[in-house]
Amino acid sequence: MRQFLDFEKSVAELETKIFELQHVEQSSDDMNISEELKQLVEKADKQLIALYAKLTPWQKVQVARHAQRPHALDYVNAFIEDFTALAGDRLFGEDHAIIGGIGRFNGQTVVVIGIERGSDLDTRLEHNFGMARPEGYRKAQRLMQLASQFNVPVITLVDTPGAWPGIDAEERGQAEAIAKSIQTCLRTTVPIVTVIIGEGGSGGAIALATADKILMLEHSIYSVISPEACSSILWRDASQAAQAAGALCLTAQDLLKFKLIDQIIEEPMGGAQRDPEAAVASVKKAIQESLDELQAIPAQILQAKRRDKFLAMGRQEVE
Question: PANTHER family recorded for this chain (predicted)?
């Protein structure tokens, strides 16, 4: 059952009517309503195109968080063959918010690290809603070091509201773990390609996104703070989140303009949640193109270019 967002109400009403007419047509041999159905489908498609052509930043936030968007494990299961998950940070324990391991991408061995937020209540609880603890980031460090050791590229899939802010995480060194993950990304000697597939929140996202190529899905978001938290700090009122979203410049289009990401991956009309297979295929193609480009660069030059890229952020002029 498709879930609709608040601003999709007009499309939802049309698609509900289409569903009802399809049911009537299938259950009756005497009624021919194919022409009416065709007109309704065309009208729904036009409304959807018009809606998604002018999404506000806050509407983009809602799309990025849509429960039916493909998650990290959906991408891994779709295009990583022979995936072998590797667990634990060898210091404390296993963190299910970050999944990672070794597999084959288009026949090439890769290390994959993803932040998984879950698709229903049980899996969301299991993966802590995509909010990693220190052991998750230390596991990611271990996997990146393994990639350097065996000279295989790294693919990271980011979808998180941010790192887990609980007392237990702070007691185990959350800030240090995130900082060390960023450092490990910068020191890794193999290509790193990151895709922001949903929500890229704060340091919890950049810990896995300090990459040679940062790709964002068209309706994903990437920000130093969530709109709700920003609103609570600036206006002491979380209800101003829509205004905060606009001020944060968190859309893929804004971030490409500011040269903080490298590429936007087009989504199916209406968002990745309406056609997950098409979204997965687009992400797979974009990752392969990035790997083809990066693997031609010698390791030392790759490292230096990665460091220079992040040091230059905030210094260059916007075109």
Answer: ACETYL-COENZYME A CARBOXYLASE CARBOXYL TRANSFERASE SUBUNIT ALPHA, ACETYL-COENZYME A CARBOXYLASE CARBOXYL TRANSFERASE SUBUNIT ALPHA, CHLOROPLASTIC
Contact at 8 Å (CB) between 208 and 169?
no
How many beta carbons lie within 10 A of that of residue 99, not counting itself? 23
Q: Tell whether 282 is covered by a domain.
A: yes
> How confident is the model over 168-180, as pLDDT tens digits?
999 999 999 999 9
d(CA 182, CA 203): 9
Whole-prediction pTM: 0.91
Secondary structure of residue 51 in the 3-state scheme: helix
> Are residues 132 and 98 in contact, defined by beta-carbon separation less than 8 angstroms?
yes
- C-alpha to C-alpha distance for 64 and 76, rounded to whole angstroms: 19
Cβ distance 202 to 163 under 8 Å?
A: yes
Which residue from 51, 43, 41, 50 is spatially nearest to 8, judged by alpha carbons? Answer: 51
Q: How are beta strands 263-265 and 192-201 bridged, if at all?
A: unpaired
pLDDT digits 0-9 by tens, 78-105: 999 999 999 999 999 999 999 999 999 9
Is 1 part of any domain?
Answer: no
- Are 73 and 24 within one domain? no
**Cα 123 to Cα 129: distance, rounded to the nearest angstrom:** 8
Give the helix, strand, coil percentages of the chain, each rounded to 5.
55, 15, 30
- Name the β-bridge partners of 213: 193
Across the chain, which has 319 residues, the per-10-residue mean pLDDT values are 87 85 64 74 89 94 95 96 95 95 97 95 95 97 96 97 94 96 96 97 94 97 93 88 94 94 95 95 97 94 94 70
